[in-house]
Amino acid sequence: MATTIHSMSTTSTTLIDGKAPLRQAAAAASSQCVTLPPLPLRLPLQQNRVWNATGYSRKLARNVAAMATGEATPEAGPPDAEELIKPIQEAWEKVEDKYAVSSLVVAGVVFLWGSTGLISAIDRLPLIPGVLELVGIGYTGWFVYKNLIYKPDREALAEKIKGTYKDIIGSS
């Protein structure tokens, strides 16, 4: 089944006919022995430390240059939670019908959850994902042929998009 391979390493793993590992002495005695060489030791990458030190040095050099010119350096720390929440709170205070907005948010989350389940169920069916992919490729080709190849068609599509945008947003 397997050929005999002898190794001088005592830390190697020996398999005999796919069974549990045996000691090196027992493996050497067997005629159907496969000895795997030990894995090389992986040293931690020092390159990451070099990049971190280089970035720190550059930041320090910018700070020194800014202090020499008298400019204030902005701190590049993570944003505070208050800075992230404050605009959301201000937008929420401007909303007049909070019940409707809350209902829309909950309905949107339920819709996304349901559509994810539906898509995963369809994806598990045999042959359906391939057929749907072909339909999508075909529709994309038809859309490009109908709306994007010729200049008058592209201009008509652009006007239609602008008109739809104005209908949704309103003229301002």
What does this structure look like?
The longest helix is centred in the middle third of the chain and has 27 residues, at about 100-125. With about 170 residues, the protein is mainly alpha-helical. The protein has helices spanning about 25-30, 45-70, 80-95, 100-125, 130-145, 150-170, and strands spanning about 15, 35. The chain is extended and about 85 Å long. Strands 1-2 form a two-stranded antiparallel ribbon. It has six helices and two strands. The model is unreliable at about 1-15 (pLDDT under 50).
Strand content: under 5%
Record the strand order, biggest sheet: 1-2
The mean pLDDT is 75
Helical percentage: 55-70%
Termini gap: 80 Å
- Poorly predicted regions: 1-15
Instruction: Sum up the overall morphology in one term.
Output: extended
Query: What is the number of helical segments per DSSP (H or I, 4+ residues)?
Result: 6
- What class would the helix/strand composition place it in? mainly alpha
Order of helices and strands: EHEHHHHH
Main sheet makeup = 2 strands, antiparallel
Task: Compute the number of strand runs.
Answer: 2
Give me the Rg, rounded.
33 Å
Summarize the structure.
Helices cover 63% and strands 3% of the residues. It is built from six helices and two strands, in the order βαβααααα.
Give a topology summary:
Blueprint: E1 13-15, H1 24-29, E2 34-36, H2 47-69, H3 81-94, H4 98-124, H5 128-147, H6 151-169
Antiparallel strand pairs: 1-2
What key phrases describe this protein's structure?
single chain, 172 residues, mainly alpha, two-stranded antiparallel ribbon, 63% helix, 3% strand, extended, disordered N terminus
